[in-house]
Design a protein that fits this description.
Elements lengths: L1 H13 L8 E5 L7 H5 L7 E6 L2 H14 L5 E5 L12 E6 L9 H11 E14 L4 H12 L11 H11 L3 E11 L18 E10 L1
Parallel strand pairs: 1-2, 1-4, 2-3, 4-5
Antiparallel strand pairs: 5-7, 6-7
Length: about 210
């Protein structure tokens, strides 16, 4: 996971201007594709906090850290990214790889990031979106409704997540397109919702928002 993610997370890391005294929060860490590439890149003196909902995955991440980065200052916390235990304005930088996987809770997660960021702190995350009238988006929407989710606008539609970031009060934001792909026409759609849908366009971006 870590080597495979290197190219994908490079634009996130490249948008970080971190000083020795900064604290970086990696939110929705998952399997550590961003976290461990950050450790390979940033100064060893920088403190990093990792948050993920899964206690199991955080246990695995901690074991991997001890085996491969034993001297690094990383704190692992298992909690809901939309309701973290941190005080207001404590982090210099918040980063996230594939935060859009929160689906219907992404708006709460982004608002939580704004709460815990220091003034002029940066939030850097990647995202992907498809056209609002795409068949893939319609299939995903129907699937989420069937599974009891009725708030899903922030994954897949550019206008929704841009409006979200702008409404929270970040000073400014920049969006960098990192990849554009067309869905494989031979993908098996019977296996469930997939992005990108066969023959449909998907755009991958990195967003840098300054509080």
């Amino acid at each position: 996971m870590i080597p495979r993610s290197r190219d994908s997370v490079a634009p996130i890391i490249g948008n970080l201007a971190v000083s020795e005294s900064d604290i970086v929060l990696d939110i929705c860490t998952g399997q550590g594709g961003l976290l461990f590439n950050i450790l390979d890149t940033l100064d060893k003196r920088i403190e990093i906090v990792s948050v993920d909902m899964s206690l199991t995955i955080q246990s695995h991440n901690r074991c991997y850290l001890l085996e491969n980065y034993g001297d690094r200052n990383v704190s692992f916390i298992s909690c809901d990214a939309a309701h973290t235990p941190f005080k207001h304005s404590v982090f210099s930088h918040v980063v996230s790889f594939a935060m859009g996987n929160m689906l219907d809770r992404m708006d709460l997660g982004v608002r939580e990031v704004a709460r815990i960021l220091r003034d002029r702190g940066t939030f850097v995350f990647n995202h992907m979106y498809v056209a609002e009238d795409s068949k893939g988006w319609g299939v995903l929407k129907d699937d989420m409704l069937q599974n009891g989710k009725d708030h899903f606008g922030f994954l897949g539609l550019e206008k929704d997540f841009v409006a979200l970031v702008d409404s929270i009060g970040f000073r400014n934001r920049t969006i960098q397109v990192t990849n554009e792909v067309i869905g494989d026409p031979d993908r098996d759609i019977e296996q469930g919702p997939i992005f990108p849908y066969p023959n449909e366009h998907l755009t991958e971006i990195v967003v840098k928002a300054v509080k």
